[in-house]
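User: Reviewer 2 asked us to show a designed sequence for the structure in our supplementary figure. I'm pasting the structure tokens here. Could you produce the per-position amino acids so we can include them in the response letter?
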């Protein structure tokens, strides 16, 4: 093996190791695979996940669906913050083919969560809602209009949700009450009538803090087409979404 080839291999090893270390310990890219977080996140959005904000567990060291085989970490380490209501987080869902999910934190440990006619009730009190302008989007080639609302959580955090059906008409509009166990969180999608989340106990349920990989921070790229649709690339870029903070 000549010196040039040896140097090239060395450089590639350094690049790969750097990517793995950054992805495990600091920031990891994540692509949105479904519409459960519309309008906050769209299919084809690429975002950065902060891996260190809550500290580390075994599932922090996970790239895609591969988790590095490390000794068991029984408590999160090197972290001084816990997930708060309103945070958008990526977590490992062992109940659904061990996939990575992204949802919003709605319920904290000890909370009682109930959906009554589509309105989230936290510890017996309904969250504040106010209707804002409708939201239109093309999904699977079809144009749809959804009612959009600003939801205010008890800690004052406000974020946007959409409803496809009238309040009380969707199949997950009247569920609970759910009492969130210690060290667990209740997650929901912003697309309330098209989200498989903690309301579906057999598929998602309560999420242990050990399964949370990190907090979604910002979008860095967005496209409405697949990577292999090369001819569509120039027309599919959603430039207005580039480098936006996730709220």
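Assistant: Here is a per-position design you can include in the supplement:
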């Amino acid at each position: 093996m000549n010196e040039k080839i040896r140097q090239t291999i060395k450089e590639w090893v350094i690049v790969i190791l750097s990517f793995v270390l950054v992805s495990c310990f600091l920031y990891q890219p994540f692509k949105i695979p479904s519409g459960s977080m519309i309008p906050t996140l769209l299919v084809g959005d690429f975002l950065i996940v902060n891996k260190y904000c809550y500290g580390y567990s075994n599932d922090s060291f996970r790239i895609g669906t591969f988790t590095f085989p490390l000794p068991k970490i029984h408590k999160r380490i090197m972290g001084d913050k816990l997930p708060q209501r309103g945070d958008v987080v990526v977590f490992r869902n062992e109940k659904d083919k061990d996939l990575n999910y992204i949802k919003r934190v709605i319920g904290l440990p000890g909370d009682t969560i109930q959906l009554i006619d589509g309105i989230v009730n936290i510890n017996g009190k309904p969250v504040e809602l106010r209707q804002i302008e409708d939201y239109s989007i093309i999904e699977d080639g079809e144009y749809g209009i959804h009612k959009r609302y600003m939801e205010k959580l008890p800690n004052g955090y406000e974020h946007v949700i959409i409803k496809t059906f009238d309040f009380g008409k969707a199949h997950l509009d009247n569920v609970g009450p759910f009492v969130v166990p210690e060290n667990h969180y209740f997650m929901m999608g912003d697309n309330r009538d098209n989200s498989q989340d903690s309301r579906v106990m057999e598929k998602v349920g309560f999420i242990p803090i050990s399964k949370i990989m990190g907090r979604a921070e910002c979008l860095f790229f967005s496209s409405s087409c697949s990577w292999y649709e090369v001819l569509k690339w120039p027309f599919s870029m959603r430039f207005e979404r580039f480098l936006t903070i996730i709220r």
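For the response letter, you might also mention the following. The CA atoms of residues 225 and 232 lie 7 Å apart. The two ends are 52 Å apart (CA to CA).
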